[in-house]
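Sharing a chain and its predicted structure for anyone who wants a worked example. Both blocks are below, sequence first, tokens second.
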Amino acid sequence: MRRFVSIGPALLVLLTAVLMLALAPRTIRGVQLALVAADVARAQAVLERGTLLEQLNAEVNAIEQSVMPSVVHISAIFANDRRSRTRATGAGWIFDNSGHIITNHHVIKGADRIRVEFHDGRVRNAEVIGSDERTDIAVLITDALPVIAVHRAEEATLRTGDRVFAFGSPFGIKFSMSGGIVSGLGRSEGAGFGVGYTNFIQTDAAINPGNSGGPLVDINGRVVGMNTAIANNRAQERRDQDGNAPPHESVQGQNAGIGFAVPIETIKAIAGQLITYETVLRGYLGISLGFINSEVSRLLERQGFTGSGAIVSAVPDDQPAARAGLRPGDIIVSIDGRDTTSSEVLRAVVSVRDPGSLVNIRIWREGEILDIPVRLGGARDVPDRGGLQYIPGSESRSLEQLHEIIR
């Protein structure tokens, strides 16, 4: 009896400890679950009161409702022979209330027939008003009136980091929308997709095969550019999103977070000429440009130049630049306040200006920054030589007169 009495308390303590060890994890889990449930309830209460995310959703929905009625789906049909046809798809957008539609040149290049599907379900045949391979811009027209034209930005005053939205038909999925940011500006052929035009907007908005020709819009629902090319793990090849280079072949490429768009100011300049004249004349400065390699860069730094620009290597006589006073060795750092970060960007900015335009060119010359006004001349494309041909005396003629001359 004594032995039981002496062992009893110890046994009771042991049993209590075992019980607590068995029940403790369940109790702790219960407490933790109660705490998480309380956090969920508090978070849900915040969400139900209305949040910044809810407002953001509403804004994005408004962008879609504002833009999508002006987006079109494009089917380009190529007749290989009597029995075989291929079809490529892309996108476009309604440029004006007259029904002109903007898309990429490569979407419709060589097509035997073009079909346009509007957001309201109407399907029409389209006619090509004009097309410019250098900038990859084409203008179509249909008999579908009335239409709703997009809101266009006056100028793509974008900054890296700005939110943008891409519209189109990725993989043939019509009237789709994706979002992202501006990843860079002034992108050129160094990106590896090889087109005649440079100075692209770079974005990480999802752009895939079929997005070609669709609009890129800002947070106000205004078109700031047109989806044109993508880069992927084979970035040294051209990436037409619809896979049409050449039209009868398919180039496989899909979004890797690097897409490119033609800026709106380029589109308006080129489309305006195509609509009015069906051809394009380009602004012409009349200089040859050199390449700033590491050796030249070190030399310029010793002379006091830092930054980026385009170096002038030659200035032919009796052309706009020579008349304005530009010299070999000048470094062009901006045009009308827009930085010219490379020779490619400079060429792109000048070429889309109207002949006869007066531009302010800022240069670095022997340690000084100078502003030089230049009246641009006009030039026509010479496809056989892959370049431009200056039209003498074009600085003093109107765009209409120049188009009459070249007809």
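Comments welcome. Residues 190-194, 234-252 have pLDDT under 50 and may be disordered.
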